[in-house]
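Researcher: Quick sanity check before group meeting.
Model: Go ahead. Protein one:
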Amino acid sequence: MKIAVLSRNRHLYSTRRLIEEGINRGHEVKVIDCLHCSMNITSANPRIHYHEDVLENFDVVVPRIGASVTFYGTAVLRQFEMMGTFPVNESVAITRSRDKLRSLQLLARKGVGMPVTGFANKPDNVPELLKMVGGAPVVIKLLQGTQGIGVVLAETRTAAESVIEAFMGLKADILVQEFIKEAGGADIRCFVIGDKVIAAMKRQGAEGEFRSNLHRGGSASLVRITPEERKTAIAAAKAMGLNVAGVDLLRSSRGPLVMEVNSSPGLEGIENATGKNVAGLILNWIEKNHAPWRTKTKGRG
């Protein structure tokens, strides 16, 4: 197969592992920085130009699109889809998962468990918003935040009102969620490929930190998940339309709750914590499922 990996840095652990596994299996793998692509958008013969080359005849495209380049990265991915290249994750599915509000609404529509979440536009709505999610403490999240940035724990009503009003004063879009105290600053990252959870790890926040992101000093360890957690993770990935996803769960008194669905989950933490060859399992799935002109969403939002 001829595989394109959409990544801005070929030396990143996840990109490097996908290259290694692809080459070890005899595939041709090319890393493409989406920001250096230009597109000829035409119904007759759509093309992608990359530096001096025209990108064509790729069997598979593996999107590793960073949050900061979602708009342009998914545009390039759509162009590959228009050319008949099989996407590991489709452009529509990625844009769904990157929009925090939209993704939570899709999860709610499918009946997937998640923290009670409120969204409002005006400071006048703040008291009702806090009441809606059960009162303080609450977690306040910027819609555009990633890797734990723009996430605040407000432990009192006064603090919550101050933070929400400050964000609204800056014209920032925010979500307000109930705080799941029993999670203890930990979450479960389930790595979903196709219709299976192939690996799972527990991420524990540093002492005094309620966010469990590894980028913020959290630690990762192997964990055994329950059948209900497995079912929830698969349902969440399916609701987004993602074939490969990292689903972050909180363990609560009412069962597993989905915190986020990541369309470009990192491989380093999960491979180190579980000892599994996750990159190889992704290649296994690609080899079994790729086909030209094969997309599920057909461009539907």
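Researcher: Fine. The other one?
Model: Protein two, sequence then structure:
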Amino acid sequence: MRLRRPRAELAPFVEHLWYLDEPLPPGRDRTLPTGAAQLVVNLAADRLNWYEGPDLAVRRGVGGAGVCAPLARPIGVDTADQARTAGVVFRPGGVVAFGSVPAAALTDPVTPLDVLWGRDGGSVRGRVLTAATPGERLDVLERVLLARLRAAGGPGPDGAVAYAVAALDRGAAVHAVAARIDASASTLQRRFRAAVGLSPKRFGRVRRLQRVLRAATVTEPGGPAPDWAEVAARHGYFDQAHLINDFRALTGLTPARYLPRSAVEHNHVPLS
């Protein structure tokens, strides 16, 4: 996978751009929530598929370019649908800078880009495909984002929301964040959901899960298991049972069943 940091003008809103064009192990993956939205373009087919439902067995799909919502639950993806793709990972709250739709309105796992950006969104996949090399294709995505950002002409990131994102990412309590920005809980909830797409509490839970996954990834069957009681204590859970319940609620797995595709792909867990 090729990763690229965005230009300075995009950096307050975009974490990185990425390009993937390589064979992947066949099968389906359970993808875990991160708290951030992504723009994804399937370059192999004009279709973005995902799987949901209790066993991640119900197939759904939209056209070949869309925005993946920030979720607090897993979805399933087929690795065959990922093998030739490009995308953008937005910073939490960053996606709203490129269109007028609040992040809280992204209620489906994937929303077609033409629904969000009209004809401009509908042309993105074709424009990316006209470029010859991976670098040029990421150049196209950057130009699309820059044009939309400049056309929107909005203010920079909401400072209060940016502070709340950073504080919750570090494990701060929601009430402490609200007090720090001198806002009521309801005001923080409204502004945060509109920008990020999750409530502050859910976002904090998802980001804590991400800290746990980075700290406790085990990539080989039979490898040493993490000390989940120690992990729970280190990351602010009441006890190991609290960690297990939260882990299951956000991933559909118990910690003991968590075995990611690789150490660098800790949000992709093969379903088989």
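Researcher: One line on it for the slide.
Model: Residues 2-152 form one domain.
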